[in-house]
Amino acid sequence: MKRVAILCGGPGSEHEISCLSAGGVLSAINRGEYEPILIGISRQGDWMVLPLDYPLSLENGTLPSVSGNYPEVTRGKNGITVDGAQLVVDVIFPVLHGTYGEDGQLQSDLDQLGIPYVGSGTVASEQAMDKSDAKTFFSSAGIAIAPSITVTENEWRRSPSTVTQSIEPLGMPLFVKASRGGSSRGTVKVKELNTFAAAMDEALSFDSKVLIESAIDGAEVECAVLEIDGTPQASIPGKVWIDPQYEFYDYQAKYLDGATRIDIPAPFSAEIIEKIQSYALIAFKAIGARGLARVDFFVTHDGEIIINEINTMPGFTRTSAYPKMWQATGIGYSEVITHLLQSALAR
């Protein structure tokens, strides 16, 4: 039986969502083949072994988090130790999202351990997390992207008027996004120029690099990619429905208010569905992703498909879009987890 270390938490802004995802993995992993070990990472970056019954669900509107006094995990080139004793781990499932979890930092740390892990490596994670860089890869691979510019904090502080002038060709509305933010944190929809400066300040509070792009008028569509026996495959895509009270698919709508759902299959022609699946696989390969990803698109009213972003460790609860799309495609939640672990162990 293989021993699987499930990592959750972390110092990033998606700490709580990571805990929810880990709770899902823990509940669905095939314990006939895998023995789970739960490792939490506090907001301060401390690693600790958590009991398998540690609370990892939404309770009375409160999201779970990693805290408390538990055995400390020490990492080194020879693997993982707890209280001076070697912790035998065959594979790591890092269910961390956003900063630290998806931007290559955690992957760089895991590479030092010499233990295989689920998901993309350091370089691919870093490239995917940076929306501005990722768009360059997607465009080079032949996938349409929204018109945009990238601005650094220094450029904005040095001459806000120059930046403000440079966005005129993008029109209104537009989106101001922390280039390396996750779960729509640090993303602001701007409908009037007089709110642009405040949007920049909000985005810069999450990252020193900001992506400013034209808003696309179209349906939001997601497609899941999963490596099965070494070959990436694309799921049936789903269309995101958002309660009209929300301007866009933001953090509050995604996780806290039940204000979204995903309709699977997405209500498009077979031709458009096939194109979405094809583009999802092209995007996955373009950044060198491994294991899994969720690729997000817009489909305009005239059928144009424009890529939005790729997530190398998408939300992974039972009710998250990623497992739902695979369920509709014929692969259940537990089976998805098994494929991911098999892919990691085969590398």
Automatic annotation (TrEMBL):
Residues 135-342 form the ATP-grasp domain. Keywords: ATP-binding, Cell shape, Cell wall biogenesis/degradation, Ligase, Magnesium, Manganese, Metal-binding, Nucleotide-binding, Peptidoglycan synthesis. The keyword Nucleotide-binding applies. Pfam families: Dala_Dala_lig_C, Dala_Dala_lig_N. SUPFAM superfamilies: Glutathione synthetase ATP-binding domain-like, PreATP-grasp domain. GO terms for cellular component: cytosol. The keyword Nucleus does not apply. PROSITE patterns: ATP_GRASP (PS50975), DALA_DALA_LIGASE_1 (PS00843), DALA_DALA_LIGASE_2 (PS00844). Its cofactor is Mn(2+); Mg(2+). GO terms for biological process: cell wall organization; peptidoglycan biosynthetic process; regulation of cell shape. GO terms for molecular function: ATP binding; D-alanine-D-alanine ligase activity; metal ion binding. NCBIfam families: D_ala_D_alaTIGR, PRK01966.1-4. Belongs to the D-alanine--D-alanine ligase family. This is Unannotated protein. The lineage of its organism: unclassified sequences, metagenomes, ecological metagenomes.
